[in-house]
Design a protein that fits this description.
single chain; alpha/beta; Rossmann fold; 3 domains; six-stranded parallel beta sheet; 21 strands; globular; disordered C terminus
Length: 540
Amino acid sequence: MQEHLLELRPYQQTALEAVLDAAKRGVSAPLVVLPPGTGKTVIFAHLLRRVGGRGLVLVHRDELVWQSAEKIRIVWPGAEIGVVKARQNELGRQVTIASVQTASQPHRLAALGADYSLVISDEAHHAVAPGWRRVLEGVGAGDSALHVGFTATPNRADGVGLGAIFGEVVASATIPDMIRKGFLVPPRGRKVLTRVDLGGVRERAGDLADGDLQAVLNTANRNDLIVRGFREHAGARKALVFTAGVQHAWDLARHFEQGGVSASALDGSTPEASRRSLLREFRDGRIQALCNCAVLTEGYNEPSVSTIVMARPTKSQGFYIQMVGRGLRTYPGKSDCLVLDVTDQAGRHRLVQLPDLLREPSATADERHAPSGQPSSPVAVPPPRGPLGQDLEVQEFGLETPFRWVTAGPLHVLGLVGLKGHWMLLVPSAVGGYRPVYVAASSVTALSAQPMPVEWAQGIAESKASRLLAGQTGHIERSARWLGREPSDAQRQFLESLGLRTDGLTRGEASDLLTRHHWQQRLSRGQVPFYELISAAQRA
C-alpha cells in the first residue's frame, strides 16, 4: 500500500507549509482560505499526519462526518479514525471526526476531552457560532492544541468577523486564480430574465428572508421560465438547482419533469436512505436536474455537475460562492460550468451575480497578515485577461489546458500518445467513486486499492502519466498541435469502415472517435480491467 495515494498540488503544499511555519511563529489559530473544489480535505489530512499526536476534525453537518472520514482514509491509509455523531461515540482514536451538533452537548463534550495536538475546523466560517465556540473552548483549540481553520468563504453574510477565533490568514487563493491554473473549470454565465419584483422582500442576517423570497418566487410562470431557459442553454448537462425554499424545490422539480427533464428534489427532512438513493441516481445520470434549498451547498461533491441553476437570488457572496462552487470541480471531458442566473427585478437590493464572483479582491501588503481582529482578505492576484462580461466565455480566463480525457460509456480514458498501447482509465465502482487503472501493452495495474472521488483518481492517473512520459506531456494535452491537423489515411479508412463520415474532422476528433469505439468494444466483450467493479446500471 502506498503511503500517499495523492501528490499534493503546488498550492496545497504551499498551504500545508504555511500552516506549519505559522505555528512555529506562535500563531495558534491560522486560517486557510481556498475555493470550493480545491481539495481542502487533502491538505488537512496530510496536516494531521505531519503534526502527529491525536487530531480532532470538527464539521457542522452530520453527513460531512462520513465524507471527511472517507477522504482521510484515501490520503492516509491505515489511519485509526473514530466518529462522534448521534449515537456513535468512538473516542481515543488517532483521528476523531465530530459533528459539532453532537459534540456541543455537555456530556459529549466532556467525553471528547482536550488531549489533542491538532484541531481542524472544516467550513470554518461557522466557527463563530455559539455551539462551535463552546466546543472549541472545551477541546483546547488554539490553547493546548493548534487550531487550523479551512474555508472557502471567510466573509459571512451577517457581517460577523472571524478575528475572534482565527489570528491570521496564512494561505489563500481565489476562484479566478484556480481557474487560470487549471484546477477549476471556468463558469459560463447565461441569464433567465423574469419580471418578478423583489422590492418588497425583507432582509434577515444580511440576506433576503427565505420565507418572503419563496412566497414571491415560487410561481408557475417563473418556474416555467426556468425550465425553458434550462432546455435552451443546458441541453443534456447535469444540473444542481438551488431554490428559495423547500416547497419551491419540489414544485420546480415537478415543472422540470413536466417539461421533459428528469428531475427530483430533496430537503433536510429527506430520510438518509432516500437521500443516498437520490444522490446515486443523480451521480449515475438517471436524474438530470436535482433541486434543493441550501442542502447541497457546503461539503457536497459531485464533479460531474456541469450546470448550476441559481433559481434563488442572494445578497451573500459567500453563499453564492458555495452554490456555484458545486459545479466548478474538474471532471474528465468537462470544459466549463454553465451558470444559469435567474434574474429578477432586484429593486432596492444589491444582489450577487456571476461577475461579482470572478472579480479579484484587493489586498495591500499590510492587509495580508492580521495578527488580531478581522482576518485579512485573500492575497490579490493579477486580474483575468480580457473583459469580464456577463457571458464570461471560457477563453477569457486563459485556462491552462488539462489532459485530453475521452469518455467511453462509464469509463474515462486517457491515451498516452508516444507510448503505443498505453492507457490511463478511470473505472467506476458499483459502490461509488472511481479507481485509476494503468493499462500497458502487456500488463494492467490498479493505481489505488479502493475507489475514490473522480477528481482524485484523475489526479493520480495524470501524475503517473507525467512520470511515464518523463514530463513531456504536450502530446496528450488539449493544446497539442497535432489535434488540428487533417486525419491520417489510416484514421479515415477505419472510421469509414464503421460507417462514419470523416468530412470536416480534425485528427484530434478522429482520434477521440477511435478511442471511444475501441473501449466501447472492449466493454461489450467484458475486456475492461476491473470491469466487475462497474455496476449493472452503468453497464446497461
